[in-house]
Write a structure and sequence with these properties.
By secondary structure, the protein is an alpha/beta fold. It folds into two domains: 114 residues, Rossmann fold; 33 residues, no CATH class. It contains seven helices and eight strands, in the order βαβαβαβαβαβαβαβ. The longest helix is centred in the C-terminal third of the chain and has 14 residues. The protein starts with a strand and ends with a strand. The model has no long low-confidence stretch (mean pLDDT 94).
Length: 171
């Protein structure tokens, strides 16, 4: 199975780790190669640049599933072209501008576009147990409470790799 992950922020890096742990051929799809080394370290088998038409064309009709974690506004059409017949693109990011999809992009290959929020207690417990068995952890930057304003400013500047976690012992 070939799985693509769009976005490598707080949510995307976990999707990448899960897809890799599930044994999928995992591909990080990105608009910038500045996180390529991180993607490979986190389990990506390859990284493709979505702004490179040749790379996108080379991967057309090859994905079984794409997890879209991007919260920035973006077009879905280029990613739908990557999917095989009967494949699915699942959106878990929340862009402020809703994406539009041409029905022709879906009908010809019977592509599904789905969405998902967090699971209930049973699903969450199963996920945590799987993480424990597989050694899957979230990538975080631990900061003291005194740096919370600095962290907020960095977040606004998109100068954060994954997630900030406040060390509450510094409170």
């Amino acid at each position: 199975m070939k799985v693509g992950i769009i976005g490598l922020g707080g949510l995307g890096h976990m999707g990448l780790k899960f897809a890799h742990a599930f044994g999928a051929h995992t591909v990080q799809i990105t608009t910038s190669l500045k996180k390529k080394d991180d993607a490979i370290k986190l389990g990506a088998d390859e990284v493709i640049l979505s702004t490179d038409p040749e790379q996108m064309k080379a991967h057309a009709n090859t994905f079984d599933f794409i997890l879209d974690t991007a919260s920035a506004p973006h077009a879905l059409e280029p990613y739908l072209n990557l999917l095989k017949q009967d494949a699915t693109l699942c959106m878990v990011g929340l862009p402020e501008v809703p994406p539009t999809v041409s029905p022709f992009s879906l009908i010809g290959k019977r592509i599904s576009v789905a969405g998902s929020m967090i699971g209930g207690m049973v699903e969450t417990q199963e996920m945590l147990e799987y993480c424990g068995q597989q050694g899957i952890t979230s990538e975080v930057e631990i900061i003291p409470i005194s740096k919370v304003n600095e962290a907020f400013e960095r977040m606004l500047k998109q100068d954060v790799k994954y997630r900030f976690v406040i060390d509450m012992s510094t409170l």
